[in-house]
Design a protein that fits this description.
Largest sheet of chain B: 6 strands, mixed
Helix content of chain B: under 10%
Order of helices and strands of chain A: EEEEEEEEEEE
Helix content of chain A: under 10%
Shape of chain A: globular
Largest sheet of chain A: 7 strands, mixed
Strand content of chain B: over 45%
Radius of gyration of chain B: 14 Å
Largest interface: A-B, 27 and 26 residues
Oligomer: heterodimer
Distance between the termini of chain B: 41 Å
Strand content of chain A: over 45%
Number of strands of chain A: 11
Chain lengths: 113, 116
C-alpha cells in the first residue's frame, strides 16, 4: 500500500496569491515527481527530484517551483497564481531504479479565480 | 524518441462485456511497460506491469502481454464491471531514450465507462 499524501485536496484561490501544494511520502523513496493533469486527462511532468537538494524541470514548462530539503517532502509553490494555473496537480514517488513503479498521491485540484 | 500510443476514448461498454484497450509503443532498448488506472477523483495507481518480452502482467482480472514483435501491450478483461469505470494509462520506462532521466513516458489515457 502506497503512503503518499497531498494537501490540500481542493483549493480555490484568487489571482495573485502565493500558494504551496504539499506532498509527503513515508516510503523512503528517492525520486519524487509533480505532474499537471489536463481536464482532458493528459499527464504532463513539470518537476522531478532524484533526492535531497536535487530538483529538475520536467517536460512541460511551469511557473511553479519546487524544493527537496527532506527525502519525504516535495512541496510545489506558485508565487503568484493565475487562472491559467487552474488544473489538477499530482505528486508521485518511486525508488531510484529506472523501471520502478511510481506511486501517486490523491491529487490537488486547484482553481484560480 | 520513446513514445506510447493508446486508443482514444471514451469507451462505453455494458457490464460483463469484453474489454480491450490498445497500447503500442516506440522505444529503443528493452523498456518496462505499465498500465495505471485512475478512478474518479483519485490519483493514479499501478494496475499491472511487465518488464520483458512475453511477460504477462495481471491484476483484478485485467491482463496485458508484452509483445516485442508487435511493440504492443494491450489491456484486456474478460468481463467488466461498473466499478471498472475509470481512466486507463499505458506507460513505459527504461527505454534507451528515457533511461538517464528515469522518467515514465505516458499515453494520453483512455476513459472507460461501464453501464449496468
Amino acid at each position: 500500500e502506497a503512503d503518499i499524501y497531498q494537501t490540500p485536496r481542493y483549493l480555490v484561490i484568487g489571482t495573485g496569491k502565493k500558494i504551496t501544494l504539499e506532498c509527503s511520502q513515508t516510503m523512503g523513496h528517492d525520486k519524487m515527481y509533480w505532474y499537471q493533469q489536463d481536464p482532458g486527462m493528459e499527464l504532463h511532468l513539470i518537476h522531478y527530484s532524484y533526492g535531497v537538494n536535487s530538483t529538475e524541470k520536467g517536460d512541460l514548462s511551469s511557473e511553479s517551483t519546487v524544493s527537496r530539503i527532506r527525502t519525504e517532502h516535495f512541496p510545489l509553490t506558485l508565487e503568484s497564481a493565475r487562472p491559467s494555473h487552474t488544473s489538477q496537480y499530482l505528486c508521485a514517488s518511486s525508488e531510484y531504479s529506472e523501471r520502478a513503479t511510481q506511486y501517486f498521491g490523491p491529487g490537488t485540484r486547484l482553481t484560480v479565480l | 524518441g520513446d513514445s506510447v500510443t493508446q486508443m482514444e476514448g471514451p469507451v462505453t461498454l455494458s457490464e460483463e462485456a469484453f474489454l480491450t484497450i490498445n497500447c503500442t509503443y516506440t522505444a529503443t532498448g528493452y523498456p518496462s511497460l505499465f498500465w495505471y488506472v485512475q478512478y474518479p477523483g483519485e490519483g493514479l495507481q499501478l494496475l499491472l506491469k511487465a518488464t520483458k518480452a512475453d511477460d504477462k502482467g495481471s491484476n483484478k482480472g485485467f491482463e496485458a502481454t508484452y509483445r516485442k514483435e508487435t511493440t504492443s501491450f494491450h489491456l484486456e478483461k474478460g468481463s467488466v464491471q461498473v466499478s471498472d469505470s475509470a481512466v486507463y494509462f499505458c506507460a513505459l520506462s527504461g527505454g534507451r531514450m528515457t533511461g538517464n532521466n528515469r522518467k515514465l513516458i505516458w499515453g494520453l489515457g483512455t476513459s472507460l465507462a461501464v453501464n449496468p
